[in-house]
Amino acid sequence: MHHEIPLHPLLFGSIPESIFALLHITPIDVYPNGLLVNKDAPIEKPYWVNIDLNTILFICPCIHIRNNNILLRICGEGNHCIMICSTLLEMLEWLPASFIRIHDSFIINKYKATFISPNIEMRLSNFIIPIGRHYSDEVFSTFLPHITHHNNKTHHKKQNN
Which residues is 154 bridged to in the sheet? Predict the structure, then answer.
């Protein structure tokens, strides 16, 4: 177990109002680790659904790719997951500023982060999300602005009197 630093619920101010987006989702059954329950089952026809983006915890690629389509797993509150055909880069283009990429495979809703283990991982609800080394400086400055981070060493910033 790594040292966890609790994140204040209002670190970024008040929780933004609901932002709804119409997403073209693919109904598919997956285990919590992202594996398909039945990898031989045909993918059903996608349909449109209106989703409050503020209920999303994180977005990551599904472990299984089928028909040259990349399925992204969108995990929301209460372990609710849906799949969409998209890429993380495409998602970042239209997601609001409340979302941040913390790993090559993860975009998180920064309002949903509850704990951080510097340079290692973040906790959102009951999910542990790794912090990629290429993203650690941005993650550090976003979530722990009072601490400087340089060459994997942390220092508390001095207060000006």
Answer: 149
Residue 151 binned pLDDT confidence (cut-offs 50, 70, 90): very low
Residue 160, judged by CB atoms within 10 A of its CB (0-12, 13-18, 19+), counts as: exposed
**Per-domain residue ranges for the chain?**
5-156
- Within its chain, how far is the Cα of 101 from the centroid? 7
With beta carbons less than 8 A apart as the criterion, state whether 36 and 64 touch. yes
CB of 116 within 8 A of CB of 122?
yes
Take residue 36 and report the two structure tokens written for it.
């398909």
Residue 39 token pair: 């990898």
pLDDT digits (tens, 9 = 90+) for 104-128: 999 999 999 999 987 689 998 888 8
- State the greatest distance between any 2 C-alpha atoms of the chain, in Å, as a whole number: 65
CATH superfamily of 5-156: LytTr DNA-binding domain (2.40.50.1020)
Other Cβ atoms less than 10 A from the Cβ of 69: the count is 14
